[in-house]
Amino acid sequence: MHEPEIPHDWQGQIASRIATLGQLEEYIELTSGERAAFEGEPVLSLAVTPCYAKQLSHPALRGTMVPSEHEKEPGSGELADPLGEEEHRVTPHLIHTYPDKVLFLATTFCPVHCRYCTRSRMVGKPADSLSLFGQTFQYIEEHTEIRDVLISGGDPLALTDSVLDGILSRLRKIPHIRVVRIGSKVPAVLPMRITDELCAILRKHRVWLSLHFIHAAELTPETKAACRKLSDHGIGMVSQTVLLKGINDDAQTLTDLFYGLLEINVKPYYLLQCDPVHGSARFRTSVEKGIELIRSLHGSISGLAIPQYVIDAPGGGGKVPILGVEQIRREGEDIVITNYEGKEYRYPDPGS
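Now predict its structure.
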């Protein structure tokens, strides 16, 4: 197996993304089950940057990037849009679920396609014209209760500097916007994108980054350098980690990741129960396992290293912090939780 030459610039990495069975086999030897996942129409297309593909020999990272035949087997309670975002879409690019926060879906493009992606219904699909952003800015301007804008997608840091600067400049002209955040996995999967020019744009607009990490194996020297560069430019960073069965669902793995993040000035913020998106059953732990893990971390590692364990209530109920079993009620193969509005939502959870 001959590993192809890897481009060093971020645009070259994107242009050379692994997107086919043949390209993937240049990096790793696939099992028969993995090859079978490429037969027929996939739930989510394959996409891996060459620099991240070099790490697929690690079983945890391989498990989140390489398609599986099990993805085509929809499980009980799984949905194409598990968070009910489409019901709260107010413009082609804007989701308004919480009273004072909005989700700005700036792009459908992502450098990699995580197999448990909540937005697999749209990631990698053709995007609406950027000209439609005008409706989004107008909505935000007219709704003065909005204080917090989270820009996501796709991955906004895969946009060009000029496009990103334009979006941020327009948002920062709106006086009632207090916080602007960007959700991204770029430092882990495309660290060369973190240039001095990009850092200057993010610092100018006082942007917080919400970064996606799932395992300490992602903290390569290049990724650490990218995060330290962001920190040196004064950019605040928090992390979101999805709890994944067989990937990071043990206390030591989480401890290694969370301490590793603190060492590069990224505050562990959320440990997210895996959303019940189509084909995600193989990734989802029981909620009881999540509670057990987060409790085991309290008192045994630094408080700074401990994130909130949350379930994003299916159907648009928002994030519900889970501290103990007394917050949940089991009804058959569902867990019933109560959100900030006092409304009940069901999360499919057959148990351990």
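The radius of gyration is 20 Å.
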